[in-house]
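**Backbone geometry record:**
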Amino acid sequence: MKSQSKSIWAGALISVTLLYLTGPTTNLWLLALIALAPLFWIAKQERARWKAAIYFAFFGYYFVSLQGLRYAHPLMVLPLIALAGYLAVYPLLFLAMIRQWLRIDRDTNSIARITRGIPFALVAAVIWVGGECLRNYFATGISVLMLGHSLAGMSHPTLIQIADCFGSYGVSFLIVVVNVAVADLAFARWSKRHTPEPADELTTSPLPTSEPSSRWKVACVGWQSSLPIAIVALVSAHVYGSGALQHETTDSDVTFLLVGRDEQTEYQQDQQRELDIFSAYARQSITAVRRSERPIDAVVWPESMLSGGQPWYIAEDDLVVPAEMRGGGYGEEMSAEQMRQIISQTRDDFTRRSVDLVSAMASGDPPRSPSIIGGCGVVRYGKTAKQFSGVIHIGPDGQVRNTYAKNHLVMFGEYIPLIKSIPVLKAYVPPGLGLDAGTGPAVFRVASLNVLPNLCIETAVERVSVNHMRAILQDDPDSLPDVIVTLTNDAWFDHSAVVAHHLRCAQMVSVGCRRPILSAANGGPTAWIDSSGRVVEKLSFDTAGEILAEPKLDDRVSTYVRYGATPVLPMAAAWLVGLAVVLNKLWRRRPFFRRDDR
């Protein structure tokens, strides 16, 4: 038993090590096709103490992979521990469900007779992908470190092209299927070489025996079925991907200047620091536009960099003066009309600054100014006051043409759930933690192109961009975006692997939406990604520089955009059924770690 326990720990550590090596630091993507194989070996071990090994191995994997989150704030180490602990639950439940399935498959009841014909490779893939689907929605959702992202670093990314049909889920499904075949081939043959052959009647018995080789053969359909499934899946993905990569795109006549810097930011930043950062970006943009041999249609600044301590204010028709602005330091009771005058003055100040900026960037003969797409705070006064992390589109004339309010906020970074509903606690919310979420997408018109803005973590939650594209396709197909522009401030993460994982998320979104992605980042992935997920050009994370991007236009409307995650939802439902079975078992056999899992 002690020897088996060591083997279980070794298998779990080998699995997470192989997964880590597929990451952006080493980019050994081929290891993804064997990384889960040790887990399937563990799943077949009878009377094994496996739970602690799996949980703590994957806790370490997620903690190390995402450890850059701790740089954002000294207290972020606590959410990092919580996040790693939460994500590690999914591999643990995956093994629990797999073992439960194998137990059913060895029985002789009616359920077993129905399920025995289902290839184990498909069962394993459904369970893994179902778990990924749930974690993309539960607790606001997160897509980073999905299994399919491990193939984003392929130099010739044929295997990830199926993401335009099924998103990253499809790539994860493919990887699991291949891993099952690898496990069946490797461990069944290893068992055969190291264990005496059982009697003939044992090899054909439908019941489990104590011999390891017999247990392996009985426990699943075996490599005779998993290998053909894996080969068909790999070949199909490769053929589909090769064809998708050959799709002809068209040149656009619109040029974007993606501006990236590495300005250090603080969680609570004073206004002077914000002005200094704004000035640094302004000087760099003016210089870059003037020296460019090509006319620039739009200059793109990262998240928050356009604010400069001066958000964009909007007054609604139903404006009500906030209670905290009535009397007090504002003198007598402020009327709604006075409030509108103040907002109008601040908008005029913002516009004058914008006019000066675009005028300073004018170049060519006759002089031509670009528009600006930049991250900027947006405050909207209606029946209640709401503040958003937003994107502003400023036209070549310096006038604000459109805004986008970030839909997907960072929990504990931009808001605390329910805290604004508790009057006693609401007053203690620090600046930056009281943001509101926007609703729905926006489309910016830049020259001849429609641009979909995304902000910050929204490309790391895959469904956000896809759902935006779907909503536009259903409401106004003529406004379907040609390009996705994403703005982020990843300086929080101090050039760690978190930044590179963010870029991988954007690569998968570009394939899923079949749209090029232009990313402008502060201390992060300033990059131009084509509609096949290939990085055309990128800046180093610690570099101040620019990318001139003329994105090639892709006329495809992907299946993923048309139907979203609909094909994956039955897998999520199957995962929930599996969870119910596991929890029912734990309820009957408590405590969780007291006895062996038989």
In short: The CA atoms of residues 351 and 399 lie 6 Å apart. The two ends are 14 Å apart (CA to CA).
